[in-house]
Amino acid sequence: MLKAQIIPVTSFSQNCSIIWCDETMEGALVDPGGDHEKLLAHVEKLGVKLTKLLLTHGHLDHAGGAADIKEKLNLPIIGPHKEDKFWLDQIEEHAANYGMAGLRCCTPDQWLDDGEEIQVGNQTLKVIFTPGHTPGHVVFYNEAHKVAFVGDVLFQGSIGRTDFPRGDLQTLITAITTKLWPLGNDVTFVPGHGPLSTFGAERQSNPFVSDQALGRAG
Ligand SMILES: [Zn+2]
Ligand SMILES: [Zn+2]
After folding, report:
1. pLDDT tens by residue, 1-59
2. What does pTM read for this prediction?
3. With the CA atoms of 71, 194, 89 and 73 taken in that order, what torsion angle do they form, in degrees rounded to the nearest 10?
4. Domain with 99 in it: what CATH number?
5. Ligand 2 centre distance from Cα of residue 13 (Å)
6. Count of domains in the chain?
7. Distances (CA, A) of 132 to 58, 116, 198
8. How far, in whole angstroms, is CA 144 from its chain's centroid?
9. How far, in Å, CA of 59 to CA of 38, rounded?
10. Are 142 and 44 in contact (CB under 8 A)?
11. Separation of 218 CA from ligand 1 center, angstroms?
């Protein structure tokens, strides 16, 4: 079974997820944005053996802690899609602008593409390419438990900002409606910020991407 615990990190309260397979106790961090000592203390308490670090996209609050953890535990950084390289390369500059200490640029060991699969113990995550908020954003989806780690693509009642360089609103809406909605209304998603929700609930009431807002038949 896939287990998950969410730990908010950085001053942006980014939801870093510790995910693990309870058969092997092998696990991964999704979006280790910072506060790496706090994250690793939780990991140790859970008895999880980390095998990889997964990034949904290159923003500092999602990726800024990855370099420190990689060096400390000798783990590969996997994802996002290579179109987000320019974001990962600017983390230190942006962190300085926000006055955030200790966040670092990083270079993934593996870039991801749509349709790839990642193993965490006996659990499988499918990679879904979802550009729009950033051009190289990916979502990690576990079909067996119908749970998706969506970064800053979709939130309860909102969607990701698209006013950043190379962001695009229509691209984001297309990614949500053609890549995420077909996975099913009963999929629970863990967003990069704020509470969990389901795709079905957002199709009902999200002011940006509900079926009604988009003029789609329910
Ligand atoms: Zn972001
Ligand atoms: Zn974010």
Report:
1. 999 999 999 999 999 999 999 999 999 999 999 999 999 999 999 999 999 999 999 99
2. 0.97
3. 10
4. 3.60.15.10
5. 8
6. 1
7. 13, 19, 20
8. 18
9. 20
10. no
11. 29
